[in-house]
Amino acid sequence: MKKIFITAIIASAALTSCSSDDDGGVAISENVEAPATYNFERGGNSTVSFSGQTTRILMAEEVLEAFKDFDNTTEASLQSMFAHVQGADDFSNADLNDSDKSIRSKTAASKDFFGANATEAAQIKNTFDGYISTQINEVFPNQNVLAAPGVAGQIADGSSVRYVTEKGLEMNQTFAKGLIGALMADQMLNNYLSTAVLDEADNRENNDADITETDKSYTTMEHKWDEAYGYLFGTSTNAANPLATIGEDDSFLNKYLGSVTNDPDFDGIATDIYNAFKLGRAAIVAKNYEVRDEQAAIIRQKVSEVLAIRSVYYLQNGKIAIENGAMGGAFHDLSEAYGFVYSLRFTRNNTDGMSFFSRSDVDSFINDMMNDGANGLWDITPATLDAISEAIAAEFSFTIAQAASAE
């Protein structure tokens, strides 16, 4: 049995399910009823657990802080945080140090996309290793140098200071937004909500017979669904009823789902995703796998849309900043855009089961961003940003204007 890692927030995430399944549920056809909140029990015990996902989100938060710690972070220490080994003194939180989880091991590690694609999975992991190396070896030494084309350093963004590479990339933003796709979305959409994972081996038979994992209150299928939920709501103040604080509970997918759902053009998208998670989990309890799969498809579509909307949002806001001569703001927005565009590789199209954007599509977008001139983002043109935005929006039903108006 794996060691259970518990902190106050993880205990809340794993044990929030304390009420009956039928509390305030809304009846749905095919004998599946969605509860009012993400609460599920068996024999008086909660069956909801996603502590591993909460752990990785908390680890990633500390990694982002270390990206900006010029005084204490080294390449070795940052890489050790990313690829944590149980017992290593990598984090300020002792429980994270004691965990056997790591971020790197679950980056580009979904069964559907990378189970038989070890080469690309390794390339993606190495890309994130490269972000770390660039931050330490290019940005850190130039902390007090004014950034210029071909020169890494600092640049003003209003009252803030941004630290960028010689090509204008703010590596902490690129790392963070890329991780939203490569970790959170990939594990959610292409792993835990995958039929291949949910129905793996004898999962269906065991779920039909209410056979739980050893010394656990949940079936394997229930747990896999909950793990997908954890990558979005794993650090929520109230993980069973998380929408009240959506956007405030982490720096990753939760944050940007909050931003999108606050835009009137996309009002309700967070509720749609939350409701699909509840109904899909209730369908597993009811042994109705058709309804389960319908809800998984809703989540895949809408989370993919969030990544695409934020890609276009930052591309367009970067364009506005360039047109206004605010290069510090432009680099900040475009570094976030770079990460979100990279995350498009991990979206999931229900029509064919593939990503909305192939590796070559994403590579082409990134190359276009960085090659309008020799100096990367210093040379990028509004025309290039519009062209990429148009290509992304064309895969979905939103317009560039709608995406650009989000918070």
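^ that was protein a. below is b, sequence first then the tokens
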Amino acid sequence: MKKTSPEVLELKKQVEARLNRRIKTPKDFLFLRSAIWDINHEIISATTLKRLWGYIQGADETRCSTLDILSRFLDFKDWEDYLNHIDQSDGSNPIRSFHISSDTLKTGDRLSISWKPDRRCILRYLGNSEFVVEMAENSKLQVGDTFSATLFILNEPLYLNNYVHDGNPPVPFVVGNRDGLCELKQII
């Protein structure tokens, strides 16, 4: 199977979602290799993973045995079982990535979010799915801006509703449009 096929790309995305971590550095590939061993007691080399993720050059095709191991890591029987699951899917899936829902927050709770290339904000929850920006670095969002949001999902764009900046009328706004949020955590 070509490592650039939609099925393989989706498999890699789901592996990253299960780990709650993007796989892009040598340390990440070692982490994934260890996680596969810890969960499934299967051995896969970090070099194989690096080739599959395109971190190093290698064959355009991926071995079925590699896809089987990654499919089992996602709790499927094997690659074929994973493909059958995708074929039966209607494109709708539960969110498996780390996420924070506004209905789990209390008034005054704070979130830290960041996105590429170097944007970072601290948000304070006002209640009723409303937030205010408390700190902003390198972002169009500025201290004092307000917006509504119900769900923050790691590695996905953040869609803001009723974004108010500098007293202007509320507008919809997207944060991390290209790569999504690369950091999402509640500050205690």
